[in-house]
Amino acid sequence: MGRSKILVVDDEEGIRDVISMIIESYFENEIITAASGNEAIAILKEQNSEIGMMFCDFRMNDGTGADAYNFLKGTDYNIPFILCSTYNPGEIGLDTLLEDNPLNSVISKPFTSDDIIDNINSSLYGDSKKEGGDGEAKEELYLKIEADRFLNLNKDNNINVYIRISDEKFIKIVDDKTHLDPTIIKKYQSKGASYVYLEKDKYLIFLDQSLLSIFSKLDDESISESDMTGAVLSSIDSIQNCVRELGVNQKTVELIGKTVEATEKLIKKTKSLDNLLEILNNERAGYIKDHAYLTAYIACSIAEKVSWKTEQIWNKIIMASFFHNIALEENDHAKIFDLTSAEYLDIGHANQVIVRDHVFKSVELLGEDSSFEEDTRKMILSHHEQPDGSGFPRRLTASQITPLEALFVLAVNFAHVLYSHEGKDEEVAVIVQDFNEKFNKGNFKKPYQGFLQAFVNIHSTD
């Protein structure tokens, strides 16, 4: 039979499920899972001749990943060991991990599907066979997920679900216009259907949502304070206090905070984007950085009130919030919202061009990275537009801006008001009174109503 099985070891069921989901969708290898280091050791003892590689977490209650690796190292199994954790090998006593076997590797959480696929290809197929082990993608139009795993991972997503009845024929059993009824899938399971299939593009979205959802909820391996500067932490504390005082409930603030952290972790997986995040946090101290994080919290608070509460939407919003002013180096330039203002007219032609075109430059700096969906790029491009067409650079009106872009514009403007007036209740309340006339029109209507519902304390000041 050979070493064709892949052992997945993690004490978090969601992590085991999502790694297994990636493997089964692109490869034919059998998957074995374990919830602890000692369980993995028991499996290795029993099935060592059949296991081709293993993905393993470090921190687990009943035996750590280091315990599992040290057992493996003391045998002649020579199985590639992929450490999948927030820890570096040197931090957990595995200093020689990468030297012990050239096929050993380290994947930092949060990982991507490519991390898993690339390691399998290099460890089992020598990089010569991709996505399915035969040189071609296994499923061109559909990708499979074990049925129970799909039910575990699906979080109220309406999605087309298929079963396969022949090599070329698939039938739809769940429509994306109806709420998923698990009994439908269980009925087909009882008839022998072990897997369900998703359209490939929908599968990729579902996978991204699953990854973001899982990593945003992992408190035990969340970002440590050492990963962020004290200034960022101080800023986040102030921002969270600010939105709470304006009426956003604690549960929502905490959920946004976790999604912000999860988004930061995803950004850190891409070097060019990680560099931009470092620039935001370390070289844009003051207005640009604080406005970015404040916008993220405000926009997600509004999104919740208009039923845009999926991790996918929040991820887009947070990405746009972080990088909408990243092309600007001067805080004073980022504070300019009106091209007829004295602040703009007094900075000289060269700086005026920088301010006017920074939305294009910010999008350009993001490059073609797939982490940035089109909605994110549109939000960045439109963040200085105004409902009446007086904004810049394209002078779009309320009917030319999508509702999601409109929500972001509203959040950007409100964050600017809060920052500029240092949260002084009376001044903020007076300015926000003008928001009704300014934003309660066209595609801004729905976000504006969400804004009023989210920040209920704005008008309660005496």
Say which CATH homologous superfamily of the largest domain is assigned.
Hypothetical protein af1432
Instruction: Estimate percent helicity.
Output: 40-55%
Helical segment count: 21
| Total beta strand runs | 9
**Which architecture of the largest domain would the CATH scheme give at its second level?**
Orthogonal Bundle
CATH class bucket of the largest domain: Mainly Alpha
Mean pLDDT: 86
The structural domain count equals 3
Can you walk through the features of this model?
With 462 residues, this protein is of the alpha/beta class. It folds into 3 domains: 1-135, 3-Layer(aba) Sandwich (Rossmann fold); 139-219, no CATH class; 222-460, Orthogonal Bundle (Hypothetical protein af1432). It contains 21 helices and 9 strands. The longest helix is centred in the middle third of the chain and has 19 residues, at 287-305. The chain is globular, with a radius of gyration of 25 Å. The termini are far apart. Residues 130-139 and 219-234 have low confidence and may be disordered.
Comma- or semicolon-separated keywords:
462 residues; 9 strands; single chain; five-stranded parallel beta sheet; Hypothetical protein af1432; Rossmann fold; 3 domains; alpha/beta; two-stranded antiparallel ribbon
